[in-house]
Amino acid sequence: MNNNESNLKRFDFVTGRQFEFDSLCQDVLNSIKDENSRNLNLKPSTKYQDIYNYLSQYFGYEGVSYLNDDRKIHGQDISTNQLAIPDIVVYPKKVEQLQWLTSFASHHRIPLIPYGNGSSIQSNVVASQGGITIDMSKMNAVLEFHPDDHEIRVQAGITKNALTDYLKGSNLFFPLDTGCDASLGGLICTNASGSGSFHYGGMKSH
To answer: What phi and psi, each to the nearest 5 degrees, are found at residue 15?
Structure first.
């Protein structure tokens, strides 16, 4: 048995019940958010209404949200810290949209908060100063895959489990196991580690 086959078997053993574990993590995440969101009084952010209308012309109304429920979801990760809610949530689909939004927010001095899957436990995604949260979930494509070079290029919104599914049958795998199903952009931003890091290294090693 070569090293790669041995690694794959070890990975299969560790992740054999990954779906159950991820489901449990998601249940915990939802219960924490429900508990902390109960009886929360959201003050209307009227100063952002004009900005919302302007962004809607660029992203379309389906690409921008001003709803309290959407803002609450994006105002907390799985930690038990207090909610810190953005004023607007944007769902870009293209790199050009991100470039435009970054320029717009910089010009108007509006905070931008990237959001992957909300699985952090360190409040990395909360909007402590309000502003615009960028939900990356719609930018989740695999752009290039070169199995012979052990190289893959993906968009930031793809999740760890989605990448694992994509790699099935290629004799390659993504070894970083963080527990909950984090986005690749979030893993990179935080240099995440997990149960496989002792053997394979943290995110910066990949």
So the answer is: -100, 15
